[in-house]
Design goal:
single chain, 370 residues, alpha/beta, 7-stranded mixed beta sheet, two-stranded antiparallel sheet, 11 strands, 45% helix, 17% strand, globular, disordered N terminus, binds glycine
Length: 370
């Protein structure tokens, strides 16, 4: 059970002095890392939620105050419904009432919801405040805190309003993952497995070898699992910050997954569960190609790993017709045809718009066992 990656940091490399590190370290080390970066945190704001705030806010505030900071904390209600214009307005009101200036850092302490909305607040308050992510969920540590996507939901759909706004630092503490509910852990696993499938066959083999330990969240593997998955995200974002090319491969399984989330109703399936099912569908499509058809042995290996992610039953009332119709409303749709991310082989993804409708239907049937 070796640790393929024992690094204590990964880096997003960007032009114009905007590169930043993902530090794999304790929450308590935040003042040290801020000081090392030269960030002025004499006065700072923490945005968190009611769940994460109960667990980690006091520690973080104590450490920052111990280093001389004056800290104000704002708590959102936990859950996706907080990614709303109403909650954003409350963050604005709170921040402006505390006398912020353009050097006041916003520290986003929490999972993807907190990171997205606090990130957007940081991007827009006073035309941009320093942003620090302290992600505490697996999805946030391996995916959403890295790469600068911020935003909130509109009644017309999720994440329809937002901005790319990169943080100065991501501080990722694997110890916070022990308190995650099981369902959030396995949902986050889907995104980390996705990173291995699209980019790094050695990481996939490591996951295969350590699958039971990862499922049990054994301390001996968790930190390495997070670091390897986060490093892949850093590499992809460094090569394509604004998703004009390579970064699209991070959407492997998402064209199908988003359709499932929309059709079932958000809250009835997690994003990671929908992506896990979506990846099975995308793998089926990958096996139907005339060129780049993926190897059967690799398909079997991937299927075994994906099967370890528990997913809810999709009721027959959610028809394949409805799912296909829902795919056509995806916001990531950039051309007249739908874009799919497929695998050429383990660790190598490509995008295509050239997929016959009957193959898409067959992919749904296979992924949903119908
Ligand atoms: N979660 C996909 C991306 O950040 O591009």
């Amino acid at each position: 059970m070796g640790n393929l990656n024992t690094t204590s940091s990964a880096q997003v490399v960007l032009p114009e002095n905007r590169s930043y590190h993902v530090r794999f370290d304790s929450i308590s080390s935040l003042p040290f890392h801020l000081a090392e970066l030269g960030v002025n945190f004499d006065h700072c704001l923490i945005v968190t939620d009611t769940n994460v705030g109960d667990l980690y806010q006091a520690t973080l505030v104590r450490k920052l105050e111990g280093a001389g900071a004056s800290v104000h904390s704002f708590r959102l209600p936990a859950g996706e419904s907080s990614k709303s214009p109403e909650l954003l307005a409350l963050i604005y009101d709170f921040a402006l009432s505390k006398g912020i200036s353009r050097i006041t850092p916003i520290i986003a302490l929490g999972g993807g919801v907190v990171g997205d909305i606090a990130g957007f607040a940081a991007a827009t308050l006073l035309r941009g405040l320093p942003l620090i992510h302290v992600p505490t969920s697996l999805v946030a540590q391996v995916d959403s805190s890295i790469g600068g996507k911020t935003g909130y939901n509109h009644s017309a759909g999720k994440n329809l309003i937002g901005a790319f706004y990169q943080p100065l630092l991501v501080l990722s503490d694997a110890d916070t993952l022990v308190t995650l509910p099981d369902r959030e852990w396995t949902s986050g696993m889907a995104e980390a497995i996705k990173h291995s499938l699209i980019y790094d066959d050695r990481f996939f083999s490591w996951i295969e070898d350590n699958l039971d330990a990862i499922l049990r969240r054994e301390a001996s593997v968790v930190a390495s699992f997070v670091a390897q998955a986060a490093s892949i995200k850093c590499n992809v974002v460094s090569k394509d910050e604004k998703e004009s090319g390579l970064r699209m491969i991070l959407n492997f399984g998402h064209t199908f997954g988003h359709a499932l989330e929309r059709s079932l109703g958000y809250g009835n399936i997690t994003h990671g569960e929908a992506v896990a099912i979506g990846m099975r569908a995308a793998l089926f499509l990958s096996s139907t190609r005339d060129v780049h058809e993926i190897d059967r042995i690799e398909l079997g290996r991937i299927d075994r790993v994906l099967s370890s992610i528990p997913v809810p039953d999709i009721p027959e009332s959610v028809s394949i017709d409805a799912l296909c119709a829902s795919m056509n409303t995806d916001k990531k749709r950039t051309t007249a045809s739908l874009r799919f991310v497929l695998l050429r082989r383990l660790g190598q993804a490509y995008t295509t718009i050239d997929v016959p409708n009957e193959h898409v239907r067959a992919a749904w049937q296979t992924a949903l066992d119908r």
